[in-house]
Specification:
Layout: E1 2-11, E2 14-24, E3 29-33, H1 40-47, E4 55-60, E5 63-64, H2 70-76, E6 78-81, H3 93-100, H4 104-107, H5 110-120, H6 123-127, H7 137-149, E7 155-159, H8 167-182, E8 186-191, H9 194-200, E9 203-208, E10 211-216, H10 218-222, H11 225-231
Parallel strand pairs: 3-8, 3-9, 6-7, 7-8
Antiparallel strand pairs: 1-2, 1-4, 4-5, 9-10
Bound molecules: adenosine-5'-triphosphate.
Adenosine-5'-triphosphate (ATP) binds near residues 16, 36, 37 and 42.
């Protein structure tokens, strides 16, 4: 459903991606892992339309969206849960969620989608009127994911959803991500938590210094000595 072909992205003179190609298949939960500074955030932000590609292509369901303005990426069916969540902390949880569903097709189904995200994250129901900034880190991450889902995307992009969360909450978060995918959503997950990301994903890419250095099914990747050494501390 998503094809990234030979993508190059730079910040001025500093090139961060050097010809990245990857594919998200329909209904797939795919992860991109790699160390700090590998270019994971750059990649996901480019796929979300927040950063311009210097060259290469981003194709969603056959439509080349590479040159579309940022706001059209959401219309095309891509929703990003950014690193650090970026909620409007002074606004209520409900207002944050409503902002996620501002496009006409999502607005028309706002109540239905709200019921779905509350089913996924029951704690949201009792927090709807609370300022988002008063929620715990884990709850804020749930709201950030719920806000993206309110747009009724076809592809959900998640940038380091485990960042800064306690191990127990991380487990809950990945369980929720797995459930979202099981309900039919295509998901692209970017993570430094390699073990967790590999456990929930159907396929994985390893990014290092702006290049894909390995790809495959998690079990096969995790069996490679160089991956074990680099990412699992073996
Ligand atoms: P992290 O896990 O730390 O977020 P990452 O894999 O997501 O790492 P990126 O944040 O995409 O990596 O960074 C890739 C490269 O681009 C790094 O060398 C980084 O220093 C550089 N970079 C990122 N953002 C900018 C920016 N706004 N201006 C200049 N260089 C940047």
């Amino acid at each position: 459903m998503l094809e990234v072909r030979d993508l190059q992205v730079a910040y001025g003179a500093a090139q961060a991606l050097w010809g990245v190609s990857l594919e998200v298949r329909p209904g797939e939960l795919l992860c991109v892992v790699g160390p700090n500074g590998a270019g994971k955030t750059t990649l996901i932000n480019a796929i979300a339309g927040m950063l311009r590609a210097r060259s290469g292509h981003i194709v969603l369901n056959g439509q080349d969206i590479t040159q579309l303005p940022a706001h059209r990426f959401c219309e095309a069916g891509i929703a990003l849960v950014p690193e650090g969540r970026r909620l409007f902390t002074g606004m209520s949880v409900q207002e944050n969620l409503e902002l996620g569903s501002y496009l006409p097709h999502a607005k028309a189904k706002r109540q239905e989608t709200l019921a779905q995200v509350i089913e996924l994250f029951p704690v949201i129901r009792e927090k709807l009127a609370s300022p988002a900034g008063e929620l715990s880190g884990g709850q804020q991450q749930m709201v950030a994911i719920a806000r993206a889902l309110m747009a009724r995307p076809r592809l959900l992009l998640l940038d380091e959803p485990s960042l800064g969360l306690s191990p127990r909450i991380v487990g809950d978060m990945f369980a929720a991500i797995r459930r979202i995918n099981a309900d039919g959503m295509s998901v692209l997950l970017v993570e430094q938590n390699v073990a967790m990301a590999m456990e929930v994903s159907q396929r994985a890419y390893v990014l290092e210094e702006g290049r894909v250095v390995a790809e495959g099914v998690p079990d096969e990747l995790l069996a490679r000595p160089e991956i074990q050494r680099a990412y699992l501390g073996v």
